[in-house]
Amino acid sequence: MLKAGRTILLQNEYTCEIITPLVAKGADKRMLELRASALKGLMRFWWRTLHGHLSLEKLRKREGELFGESEMNVSIPSL
């Protein structure tokens, strides 16, 4: 555990096996690429799935603390 001022930073290391497609073709159609945004999106999805017992407010707060938050507050209307 690292301490930086009043903030406590936790460092965890995981070994993961990808069992679903996670790569896509980019500009060079002959090469597959793995984008950090795809990996981060996948991690967010599973984090939300594993923490679905939390209230929406707590879920958003903890997710933002772990993965970062967008500066924009965008509301998507439900259909």
Helical amount: 25-40%
| Total DSSP helices | 2
Strand content: 5-15%
| Strands, total number | 4
Q: End-to-end span in angstroms?
A: 44 Å
Shape descriptor? extended
Order of helices and strands: EEEEHH
Instruction: Determine the structural class based on helices, strands and strand pairing.
Output: alpha+beta
Describe the largest sheet.
Answer: 2 strands, antiparallel
- Unreliable stretches covering 5 or more consecutive residues: none
Mean pLDDT: 78
Radius of gyration (CA) equals 16 Å
Strands of the biggest beta sheet: in what spatial order?
1-2
What can you see in these coordinates?
A hairpin with a 6-residue loop joins β3 and β4. With 79 residues, this protein is an alpha+beta fold. The longest helix has 15 residues, at 36-50. It starts with a strand and ends in a 12-residue tail after the last helix. The radius of gyration is 16 Å and the shape is extended. The chain has two helices and four strands. The strands form two sheets. Strands 1-2 form a two-stranded antiparallel sheet. It has a two-stranded antiparallel sheet with strand order 3-4. The mean pLDDT is 78.
